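Q: Here's a chain of 693 amino acids. Please give me its 3D structure as tokens.
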Amino acid sequence: MSIGENNWTPSEKVKLKVSRVDTFGRGLDELHALKNEFADLKDSLSDIASISGPESAKKLSRMSAELDNFAPEVTFIGQIKSGKTTLVNAMAGQKDLLPSDVNPWTSVVTSLHLNSRRNKDLPKAEFQFFDSGEWDKLVENGGRIGELSSRTGADKEQEKLLKQVAEMREMSKARLGKKFELLLGQTHKYQEYDEALIKRYVCLGDDFGGEVDPSRQGQFADITKSAEIYLNADFLPCNFVLRDTPGLNDTFMMREQITIRAIRDSQTCVVVLSAHQALNSVDMGLIRLISTIKSRQVLIFVNRIDELSDPVNQIEEIRSSLVETLKANSGPQDATILFGSAVWANCALSADMSEMSKDSLAALQAIIKAENSVEYDEDADWERMAWHASGVPALYSTLSARIAESSGQRLLQSVRRRARNMVLGLRATSSIVSVSANSANIRKLSDQEIVALFSSIESKAQRELSEMLNVARSHFNTRIEQAHSRFLSRAADALVQHLDNYGEGANWNYTPDGLRTLMRSSYQIMSTRLRKNMEVFLDGCAVDLADAYNQIFDVTLENFKVETPAVPDVPPPVTIAQTIVLDVKTPWWKSWSRNRKGYGAFAEDFRKLIEAETGPMVNELKVDQIDDIEELMTATLKRFLVEQQTILADILEKSKVSLEDLHGLFGVASQQERNELFDILFEELDIEETGEE
């Protein structure tokens, strides 16, 4: 906003212009502590690598790189005009990075990669387009809404939708010209970017018709699937990915599916609500989404409190209303609710409070005056106070704690376990070489026999894992198919009862929430059992591997064991939150009433329609979701076995060295000193299982 619009006088503007201070890194203590833990672990990995063989050193280097590349992902969801993009800009420390003051709106999943460790020659911005199949699904059917309209015979709704789609297609072709078809499936990459460039790809227009200017915003937005932006954020102690998503009240369901996928891939989800419309009736889709995610992975940020007339009192009213709404609609009961203003945050970033309206400043003064943790002062540093009251530091503080205790700790535990296996291998090497100095041959098996033994262990592990996953899939599929069938019967019966009671003159709708509850419950039971079974399975693999070492070497290895890898997290079933429309309006009956005798004739056909509408959600769980879980579990086993083979290869190689060479390798001469060295490394890699389940 301009100064004139806010009625500021020049003298008032000068008074409000504050000197910029370094306040934007507040709230990140937990991430700084996590960074220090990473640094300590990297030092330990370096120590282990210095006494390891080449292959083990490479593995340890990759583990160190995993720590360097740790990048927690946070996805922001909400409705159009909730202020998500303005908030994301503030979180990135760059006020005008993503377009936030435009109408039309952001329509593309946009990921900001902060502090990403990328080669300088790689692009700083990448925009991926839908391929032809995705585009056809998006525009020709309008997503699943279009499919439903076609199935139900809702001619007027379908006609309206198809008209909009046709306009969208023509506008896209007008913007892109002859290159339209060629662009599908491509990725545009740039070494530099600015707001104008980003607008061309992520701001979808609602201005159908009129003259088309190819250089204006939204030139490619209709066909853009995702945007990846890479930038530095010096105030953050680690890499970070902030993901802005289209409003969940977007017309086309393809974009909803992309948003759902983004949430699945993130460690934390921030639900952004407008203070004026916090969880109104059209926000039930948000509740459905966050109900599928663990409460500790969900934060609710009520934005735009700068627009409240009495923010101090209204905030508590909104909080109470939110808690009740979530409780009444089976939302997360203990989700953290934060309040703030992205506008205040961005005013602080610009170091010019004259960008704030007088009403907004009055609201800020009221908040600061009521806030005990920050002393109120008429001549205070308003930049610092605006940043504090904006809620961004509190949001970062909460995110930092959640990330540090969950994905951060899981990575630490995973790397520590794998590194301990490396040290176990080194200690075994030391014992074997020491014994071999007085023994002609310490190996029981030949090279060919060792290869066969490990091949046998690998085949057995893969077979057992496959059997375990197949059983889990079979039980899960049976459970949700039964739940789906019961739901379809209840819905069809409810339709017949509605017709008996009200006839064909009344609209009818049926909520799918019962089906969602059954799906979520079935998924939780399956995932809990599978993770427990996976732990037992990996423990068994570790025992088999430890036994293999004893079979290979004619040496007793005291207290030797193999550390099991951490079981990976199972992705949340957010697909069950996708939009499902089960309603029938009065004109709809006419297309169905022909050649039917009695209302019972509606039931079976309508059951088929409901099955067609809910089937994609059920199939997504049965196929794609379980496929993702299997891929995670299989990758965990594969990496475990590969690392064990590397450790064995190192032991076999070092078993050929002389005792003198062994002294040089470890830097100490006596077995006792070597054992003390290993004890120190084990102590550095001590595992404290504190990660979330």
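Q: Can you summarize the key feature?
A: The chain has a mean pLDDT of 78.
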